[in-house]
Predict the 3D structure of the following.
Amino acid sequence: MIQISALPAFTDNYIWLLQDPHTLRCAVVDPGDAAPVQAWLAEHPGWVLSDILITHHHHDHVGGVEQLKKATDAKVYGPASETIPARDVALKDNGRVSVLGWEFDVFAVPGHTLGHIAYYHHGLLFCGDTLFAAGCGRLFEGTPEQMHTSLSRLAALPEDTLVYCTHEYTLSNLKFAAAVEPGNPDITARLEKVTEQRAAGIMTLPSTLALEKLTNPFLRVDETSVKEKVDERNGTQNRSPSAVFAALRAWKDKF
Ligand code: ZN
Ligand code: FE
């Protein structure tokens, strides 16, 4: 059984560490900084970093790759259509990779960046800056339509899927979610819980797709309450779910 833990980096990034205790091999997802990974390896003699999974080209996700590649024999996987330092394996939509003996499906999830990919292994999703707990990534390169399609694809995975995103943005995302749906009791309850967790310095990840469907406004653009709130703000009617998504994302950008 593979264990997953978080190595905090910068102010709000998590580098996910996958460990196979039987082989003492480990893998990391999106090491924006090599230092936390190298510190962990130094504290855990015998462990070997064998794989590095990259979701997209932003510096806070790839910044540590070259240094880790020099210090270890790790293989670097990343999206084919983006420039990823020291990449060994270029991945495309519906590709498959074997990491620590686990098969991962690769999904193209354009929106935050155009080449952004997510990694899925039965019940586990590493989605970078696409789906966040109670939120989603900013649209730096893609269109709202692309991001809406990408999020819908992730939302179609099994409900008990654990969502390992890269940033601890849950509290600020939930404050926005509460503004969108003030009458949603699941959002109110989650906001309360996450407020306590953050005050105690506790990580709010991973999330689950079931919880995201109840509390993430960006997965709830089909809900009448969300559509009406956006219509009310924009003074428009009859929006498609992807138009509701676009207006919601634009609102969040200024929230
Ligand atoms: Zn990013
Ligand atoms: Fe990021």
Remarks:
- The mean pLDDT is 97.
